[in-house]
Amino acid sequence: MAENNYIKQYPDIMSGKKILYVHGFCSSGQSGTVTKLKEFLPGAVFIAPDLPLHPQEAIDLLHKTCDEENPDLIIGTSMGGMYAEMLYGFDRILVNPAFQMGETILKNNMLGKNTILNPRKDGVQEFIMTKAMMEEYKYMTDQCFKGVNEEESRNHVYGLFGDADPTVHTFELFCEHYLNAIHFHGEHRMNDDILYHSIIPVVRWIDDKQESRERHIIYVSIDALRSDDGRAKASAQKAFRYLLENYDLYIVASAPTNNHKYAEEANIWVEEYINVPAYNRLILTNQKNLLYGDYLIDPYKVDGAENFIGTLLQFGEDPFKTWDDTIEYFSRLGGQ
Questions:
Q1: E strand or H helix at 40, and its extent?
Q2: Is the confidence at residue 247, as pLDDT, over 80?
Q3: Nearest Cα to Cα of residue 287 among 219, 217, 215
Q4: Rounded to whole angstroms, how far apart are CA atoms 174 and 160?
Q5: Whose CA, among 54, 103, 215, 331, lies 20 to 30 Å from 169?
Q6: Considering the domain 217-333 in this protein, what is its CATH number?
Q7: CA dihedral 222, 330, 202, 206 (to 10 degrees)
Q8: What pLDDT sits at residue 258?
Q9: pTM for this one?
Q10: Rounded CA gap, 40 and 17, in Å?
């Protein structure tokens, strides 16, 4: 998608709802990330203020904005993820959150003159990061996680962390306080590919939850996705992402009684090749007949697949010989 500059739009996701975007360090409310999010989600109303340079003023502005706008979702990136964590009571996505901002400033040579990468309404283009201001950030990051409770941890916050991020490393710290921690393939800065394959699926989950929206369920055998050489089969990733737009998807793998290594390998494979869209959606079972759902895509009639209560689509057989064939089949169903 990023290669041909094509932006797929999802006007139904968060339609009519407010999304508060909290930008990162040396950025503004006109960052390229929020511009792209607006293109992806044209039905949503975006609020993206320029943050004051002093952290206490920034968090005060964000609390005031939340009180006035009551956003349905908050997305914060990097430093903005640190601020967004403290906006309790709202659904939030924290992307590469800089929970140790004071240390990040010091380790990444941010003391001294800094240039702001995007235009600000106040016209500021440069500022000096002093040691005193760095201490303000250290104090602010000490306030993180003060309002976390079980409800916040389980149901309101997703943390997304680039597995090649050279700047911020707070995955373990996040996991000490929140349940939903996800690695995505990428670095610190956002690009179209990360937004499309990693951020948008999470926004969709949150929108579905808010609307109590139920989708038809498809179970996909890992054997239908994985080739003999251990890679993903042709068009398997494309198909999974396509089906995710209209269905609730789960990946099913066998659960050998005495082989715990198999389960670990299955989870590693899913994270590597399907990644964020398959978060918390791997099911290990030898009794596929007990699965409750609408479709099972499986190349084999084993482990109860032949007695699946819904519709069994035998992958590799006509008319489901390939994933492109399978995409064509579901395109005709229109989400049914």
A1: helix 32-40
A2: yes
A3: 219
A4: 10
A5: 54
A6: 3.40.50.1000
A7: -120
A8: 66
A9: 0.93
A10: 14
In 10 A of CB 149, how many CB atoms?
10
Residue 181 three-state SS: strand
- Whose tokens are 């996991």? That residue is 175
Torsion angles phi and psi, residue 42, rounded to 5:
-70, -15
Beta carbons within 10 angstroms of residue 93's beta carbon: 25
Question: Under CATH, what is the fold of the domain 18-210?
Answer: Rossmann fold (3.40.50)
Q: What single letter denotes the amino acid at residue 93? A: I
The residue written with tokens 């609307």 in the block is 211
Give the pLDDT score at 334.
Answer: 83
For the chain, the structural domain boundaries read 18-210, 217-333
- pLDDT number for residue 48: 97
Residues present in the chain in total: 336
pLDDT band (50, 70, 90) for residue 255: confident
Fold agreement (18-210, 217-333): yes
Q: How far apart are CA 336 and CA 310, in angstroms?
A: 13
